[in-house]
């Protein structure tokens, strides 16, 4: 977890600590659907599988992973929603 850019403005925080795979990823997808392009969602997760799932999802979906970090047992991801392709 080395991506770090703490200057991103956070528009929404989604705390899914305690949820196991695949719930953190599913809740992130739902959260992104409710946001506008350019907005940033912060996801707080405790499932270590998220460290693989979230970056892979961002790469496949085109959303931008702008920051990742770990605070104790909590993994923090900041994802910027990109414009959907037509």
Automatic annotation (TrEMBL):
Q: Which CDD domains match?
A: SirA_YedF_YeeD
Protein name, please?
Sulfurtransferase TusA
Residue ranges annotated for the UPF0033 domain, each copy included? 14-38
By sequence similarity, the record places it as follows: Belongs to the sulfur carrier protein TusA family.
Membrane-spanning ranges: none
Its organism's taxonomic lineage begins at: Bacteria, Pseudomonadati, Pseudomonadota, Gammaproteobacteria, Alteromonadales
Q: Which top-level group of life is the source organism from?
A: Bacteria
Q: Which InterPro entries match?
A: TusA-like, TusA-like_sf
């Amino acid at each position: 977890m080395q991506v770090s850019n703490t200057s991103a403005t956070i528009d929404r925080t989604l705390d899914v600590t305690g949820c196991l795979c695949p719930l953190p990823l599913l809740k992130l997808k739902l959260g992104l659907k409710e946001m506008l392009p350019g907005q940033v969602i912060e996801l707080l997760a405790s499932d270590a599988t998220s460290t693989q799932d979230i970056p892979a999802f961002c790469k496949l979906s085109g959303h931008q992973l702008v920051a990742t970090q770990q605070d104790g047992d909590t993994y923090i991801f900041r994802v910027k929603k990109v414009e959907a392709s037509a």
